[in-house]
Amino acid sequence: MRPMKRHLFNRSKDIRRTILVADDEEINRQILKRNLGRFYDIIEASDGQETLERIRRSKGELSLIMLDLNMPRMTGYEVLEAMQQEEDLQRLPVIVLTSEKEAEIESLQLGAVDFLEKGRDMPEVVVARVQRSIELAEDTQIIRDTEDDELTGLYNRKFFFEYAALMRGRGLEQPMDAVALNVDRFHILNEIYGRSFGDELLRALAQAARQALKVWGGLASRTEADTFLIYCRHIEDPGQLLRILEEEIRRLEHASAIRVRIGICSDPLQEMPPEHLFDRAVSACHSIPGNVTEQVAYYNESIHERQRFEQRLVADFQRALAGDEIKVYFQPQFHIHGEDRPVLASAEALVRWEHPELGLLSPDQFIPIFEKNGLIRRLDQYVWRRTARHMSEWKKNDQPILPVSINLSRVDLFDDELEERLIGLVEEFGLKPEEYMLEITESACAVDMDQMVAKLNRLRDRGFVIEMDDFGTGYSSLNALTEIPLDVLKVDMKFARQLTADEQSHKMISIIMEIAEWLSVETIAEGIETEEQLRIFKSLGCDTAQGYYFSKALPAEKFEQMLRTYFPKEESVC
Fold it and tell me: Rounded to whole angstroms, how far apart are CA atoms 32 and 488?
């Protein structure tokens, strides 16, 4: 790949350029200084080692180097070789000075741009060739600056696709791959760790792309935010590309929180325009779910259809909020510990999308999309407000207020204004913090626990009840559980589904109940669908249960009817 973007030369005639004249013979330096000094500022070096030191020290000022090949301490050839090893020196144009005509080819191969024979070229010729070499170098740099992404030095989108089309037009008889890669939840990492960390991560990915080009050839680009494109020979083993990426990421702080996704679309016959090919590679990349097991996807038609569906939901989201299409449903929760029969005790606020054309959409159809693109925060805040409003209306209708839990996504936990938002809601709608319970997922514990624990402690001190959802999915250690301020553990529904057929699940639930007792927290079992499942959870000491055995999630008006049935107005649960 080309070097990172450097100093953009100013072509103004009013600015004097600086030339380094490197020659061990003073008379030669003085002749060049006399001929060129009218037009340029001249600095001098008398041996190879001094030359390289002056180049490194003055690289931001130099417009040209005039280099003698035969110097003490380090030859001109060795200076050229050293410059080629340093990315920020490669752009500097070098005119070689020697009396040996046969040295021309080797000098040019080492990066020199021109060749002058000592004592033979007329002063006017020397000035003209120096001027032309500087202009060509400046023009080249300006073109590179136009082509490059400023942060990473890779091609920008426009030039990437132009050069990809040129490559394809050469009729290379080999299969090619379009590769798209990005970072899972990059916007969240940017919010948590700051923009400087995000920029450092993007530069690391750019360096990984350069390393990949050394293996498979081709071109690389950063086209937007955290999206990188690579056009290269067919990659037989995508695991090799993953290893290159991980090697660069491993050097970064917070490396454990970074997960890269790769989408690939192969074009064995080079029949598809690059833009279409990369649209498909990006679709494959975006199709990878937010978990830790999958990192590579190959394009297929089902991925294309899924992306079209996702794009539609994102486009319809603002209209859905304004048009009251997003609904809050309430999942009833029943107290089962020590009770002869289950007693309605609380509820979980869930979200549904009543799309006018696509019908009723479940949260697993749109929440992962909004988690990827950052819209989840707006969705969460909408649901929180609607939930609080419903609870307030029940209170006005003389219905008892049962505690209701709302979901906090990972990005919510890193919102500096979260505490004040929630306090503002309960105060606005006349609720108590203990009636408005906060539910986090176990996976949220995997990123920046110190910050998360501090935030949860403050919320708990204000009276909110903290629940951990999906417990048992494997993210938390016992040590972490002792640090996180919790009041309730919710047992993941997969254990209930596997309970009667899987003895291991039965043992796992028993262990979770023992952990909860050790932590002095209550437990809620999710996904109860049969009487047998209820019996087992109850026998193991579970406090509360929810699931289709009791009731499916209900719209607000139907849940209010359930409240009236369980708690006539003359009774009170408070």
Answer: 82
Q: Sign (positive/negative) of CA torsion 13, 16, 17, 19?
A: positive
* Phi (first) and psi of residue 6, to 5 degrees: -120, -160
Q: CB neighbours (10 Å) of residue 488?
A: 21
The gap between the terminal CA atoms of the chain, to the nearest Å, is: 69
Looking from the CA of 1 toward its CB, the CA atoms found within 13 Å total 30
Integer-rounded Cα Rg, in Å, for the chain is 33
Q: Does domain 157-299 have CATH number 3.20.20.60?
A: no
DSSP state of 155: B
Bridge partners of 43, per DSSP, are: 20
| 308-566 fold | TIM Barrel (3.20.20)
Strand ordering across the sheet containing 176-183: 219-224, 227-233, 176-183, 260-267, 296-298
pLDDT of 487-501, one tens digit each?
A: 999 887 877 776 665
Instruction: Report yes or no: 221 and 202 within 8 Å, Cβ to Cβ.
Output: no
Residue 16 carries which DSSP code?
Answer: P
Instruction: Delimit the domains of the chain by residue range.
Output: 18-147, 157-299, 308-566
Task: Average the pLDDT over 120-140 and give the result.
Answer: 74
* Chain centre to alpha carbon of residue 342: 45
**Percent composition of the chain: helix, strand, coil (DSSP 3-state, to 5):** 50, 20, 30
Q: Whole-angstrom Cα distance, residue 245 to residue 222?
A: 15
CA distance 191 to 258: 13
Give the CA distances from residue 317 to residues 54, 56, 310, 326, 332, in Å, rounded to whole numbers and listed in that order.
59, 54, 11, 9, 27
Task: Specify whether the CB–CB gap between 375 and 314 falls below 8 A.
Answer: yes
Q: How far is CA 335 from the centre of its chain?
A: 41
What's the order of all strands across the beta sheet hosting 62-68? 41-45, 18-22, 62-68, 94-98, 114-117
pLDDT tens profile 178-233 = 999 999 888 778 777 888 898 999 999 999 999 999 999 889 998 878 899 999 98
Facing residues of 49 across strands? none
pTM confidence score = 0.60
Q: Is beta strand 326-335 parallel, antiparallel or unpaired with respect to 554-555?
A: antiparallel
Q: Do domains 18-147 and 308-566 have the same CATH topology?
A: no
**What does the angle CA 154 – CA 160 – CA 163 come to, to the nearest 5 degrees?**
125
Q: Give me the CATH topology for the region 18-147.
A: Rossmann fold (3.40.50)
